[in-house]
Amino acid sequence: MNEAIIKVKSELGIDAVILNSRKIKQPGFLGFFKKNVVEVVAAIDEDYKIETKYSKKSKIKTKLEPEKIEKSVATEPKKNTEMDNKIDKLTMLVENLEKKISSIENHDISEKPISNEKIESNFDKYIKLLTDNDLSEKVSTQIMNQVNKRISVDSNNEKTVLNAMKIVIKDYLGEPDEILSDYNEQKVFMFVGPTGVGKTTTLAKLAAKLSLRENKKVGLITADTYRIAAVEQLKTYSEILGIPLSVIYETDEMDDAINDFKDKDFILVDTAGRNYKDKILKEELEGMLKYIDDPEVYLVLSLVADYKNLINVIKSYDFIKNCKLIFTKYDEAVTFGNILNIKMFANKKLSYITNGQSVPDDIELLNIDALADIIVGDK
User: Fold this and answer.
1) What are phi and psi of 263, to 5 degrees?
2) Within a domain: residue 179?
């Protein structure tokens, strides 16, 4: 409104009088990209009228009405009393309009609090919808702020709002990263994460996918010697799949293990599932990573863990740069908002989800369209 008034005064001068003003919402594509337009009707003392439409991306359009000039000239010979009455009315109009302009310039518009109240009410409604699906309040507010920049958050256009929310959510999730089979050189993948999240089973699923479905030469390395069951589990998988396995007990053995697999297209490394609070964790992983050229690291997280614990896990692995996220136990989870919570907090790429114990079937690339539907309650 302030910008529109400035435009009016620049066209008609500082003596211009605002006769009427209103906000107009222009139509947009599928409800998106609408820009508010302010329409201002102003007059100058020669009785010219100007209709001004203004928005940040539009030019001022003016329409002069010359017939008003003819009317003014024709009425000049009339009695002074009629002219005096006209002047008195104009004076009163100017005084009222000056008060109105002052109110606008000070942002004291009577409609504004009502509008804000409605917006806040709608925001509360949609933010609650998101938080009920385990999105944090911070992430939920961020999503709705982005939605509000695109469309009017109105209870009368709920379908459009929900669609806008899905678009924003998918933008934040980003395209998931897949293990490709067409690398030009050997690639090493390392799987890290806390105890009990399913790292070994996840590794076996991807090894089977690469070996059986992509017909690639795969080698397995395990450094998880703290649990005898973990080594035995991976040995069983390696025998069934016909994939060789190397077991290392010290970090400096990593170099020899990788050299033993020079003929392999892919090497998948299983690591110990230490408690994320264990200070030895960083030392061990950094000790192994220094022997690997350009490794792909996957941080494996459980969807049944609560948000606070997941945040602590992310912080404990922040020394590993550019790792990607795999979420397990998708089939056991009740809500799925933590996928987006952690994505936003960690600022790392998403990758796979696992939804069962079957090898190699129960693993798939994260479907961001389906996840966005679930988060907004549109299953």
Assistant:
1) -85, 0
2) no
Q: What is the pLDDT of residues 96-135, one digit of tens each?
A: 666 555 555 454 433 333 345 555 577 788 999 999 988 9
User: Which amino acid appears at position 117 of this protein?
Assistant: E
Label residue 47 by pLDDT band (50, 70, 90): very low
Same domain, 211 and 318: yes
Going by pLDDT thresholds of 50, 70 and 90, the confidence category of residue 87 is low
22 by Cβ neighbours in 10 Å (0-12 / 13-18 / 19+) ranks as exposed
- pTM across the whole model: 0.67
User: Are 237 and 352 contained in the same domain?
Assistant: yes
351 has a pLDDT exceeding 70: yes
Residues 139 and 209 in one domain: no
The answer, yes or no, to whether residue 83 has pLDDT greater than 80, is: no
Record the tokens describing residue 160, joined without a space: 């459009």
Identify residue 162 by its one-letter amino acid code. Answer: L
Q: Are residues 226 and 285 in the same domain?
A: yes
Residue that has been written with the tokens 């390395």 in this structure: 221
Is the separation of the CB atoms in 178 and 365 below 8 Å?
yes
Amino acid at 338: N
**In the prediction, which pLDDT does 71 show?**
40
